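Figure S7 source data.
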Amino acid sequence: MNVPSADISHLERAADYLRVHQLDTGALPGDYSGPMFLLPMYVGTLYATGEMPDEAQQADMVKYIRGAQNPDGGFGLGEENPSCVFTSVLNYVTMRLLGVERHDEDLQRCRKWFMDRGGALASASWGKFFLAIMNLYDYRGLHPVPPELWLLPYEAPLHPGRMWCHARMVYLPMSWMYGARAQVPLDGLLSAIREEIHPIAYSRIDWKAARDTVAPEDAYTPLSMPMKVANKALHAYERSPLKPMRPKALEECLRQIRYEDEITNYVCIGPVNKPYNTLVWHFAEPGGERVRKHLERMPDYLWSDRRGTRVNGYNNSQLWDTAFAIQALKAAKDKRGLQVDDLIEKAHDYLDHSQIPEDPPDAEAHYRCPSKGGWPFSNLEHGWPITDCTSEGLKCALLLQDEVKNPIDLERLKPAVDLLLYWQNENGGWASYERTRGPAWLEKFNPSDIFHEIMIDYPYTECSSAVLQGLAAWREVSPGDPRVDKAIERGKDFILSKQEADGSWFGSWGVCYTYGTWFGVWGLLAAGMDPSAPQIQKAADFVESIQLADGGWGETIDSCAQKRSIPTDEGQAVMTSWALLTLVKAGRKDSEAVKRGVTFLRERQLDNGTWPEEHIAGVFNKTCSITYDNYRRVFPVWALALAE
Ligand code: LAN
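Tokens for the predicted lanosterol complex:
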């Protein structure tokens, strides 16, 4: 082991912070909030079921909403996004449901912002849909979400089973509620809100016209021609009194929902289908056992701190965060002699306990893949395995073989490797949860208005790189499997095909090119490319070219929607770390750029060992920002371990 004598007190402080905050399970807790439509759906669901949180929690939610309001009065899609009608109206409604009076100053500012743009009638379709459930919007003002799609043969490209699982699992309860025209009963408060969010009296609204009104702020993905044509046909179908397949379709939706609920222990795959599935059971079996089970798991999604209470973008991000922490700490131990055996041992426990032991029963009838050996993003109860999470889990398990008391047996890792191989797409890349199941033109039927590329599970640079790294680590301990060799070669070609002309890679799940390029470079190196290869040197040149004057790196969330790197005004610790990780592995450890980056990180560290909260570093579907709170506690450690 190479243990330099240099001062490592800054790394020790960073580790101390993690030590104090590590949970008994070994995981690291962290804020994973940011999308501004989640708390409204949560509160609306509790309001509908008559299970509103206690007063203290309600006040804490109001506190959060007020803090997230943009200076112009509106709310963004995510905390760091510019205002849009969708989340402005939903947060207005939420504050009202939480007991804030309509004359409240913040509410007035919010209302003015969305009224100037046409009120709730100009919201993206996801907002209108939720308002329809809450009886604040008429179902006639929605484009149909036909449950009958679930009865199509799987061969049909439009079968929901071919969609990206997140879109599929959100549109599933939506189809049921649309088909059943489910709505909470109108009460005094809802009647009042109805008149506050629309530009004209509720009874006079032209619902048909409202279907296609979308404020420019909400129309990131305007409806395509084919979608418009399809909507016309679907409306004709809705008008016909005879819908012979509807009862069967609704039954099929319930069957799928039941499966998702039970297999995830009522956690559900994400923060949208969780409240939606709860609502479905509230309407289908009011006061029933399923509603109770759902309500019990609602708080899994909450996050509270001094900024107030809000809803996370997943039930938590613990496996993901813990896997990166393991790799950062192990690097700091190996390269700098940091004493973190206790932390690593506990984190390994979490890893050990969150590997998925079995395939889901009757997987095919529910469009699920095998899961055995995989790792989820959050925890075992959630249980949906993900390509890159599985690979990060595998990497960590291999990394700690000689490190912990009870390393995960290699036999247990074989199914993880099989899963990774199974998930590879024909073009060599890996998508997020499943193989890509539908054609790219399905994106033309994206009805969301506001999210981009949600219809199918696309192969991503990040997921592909993570998997390559896992397979390469596996090959070290278990060489000679031609399936693995071939998968790595094909994966490498996929990553090369995604490199931009300037040497960078676009990041889909982190902001933005610093994230994508880190994965691009590490993926190619794992696949056996030499750091001196022109593609890697070009990537390093790109990274150096976007270093900021203060020695750090930083990109804004707009970089993701606009697909070009847009600098922040100051360096950001997390993005600086990604850049350093890239440069060091590209053979530039001794460069001036790396030295300045290291100084930047060291100077930015807080007394408590972490780094300041800064611009949001996570993103999804090109437009929505999401907080990865632990990134600022983990990535600087990793970068400093390797770069100093
Ligand atoms: C996530 C969270 C984890 C994330 C990573 C594993 C980090 C990534 O590498 C692959 C994609 C994935 C799994 C991911 C996909 C999109 C999610 C699920 C989210 C960003 C968390 C919330 C978001 C979900 C789609 C929000 C609901 C909105 C919809 C448009 C359906």
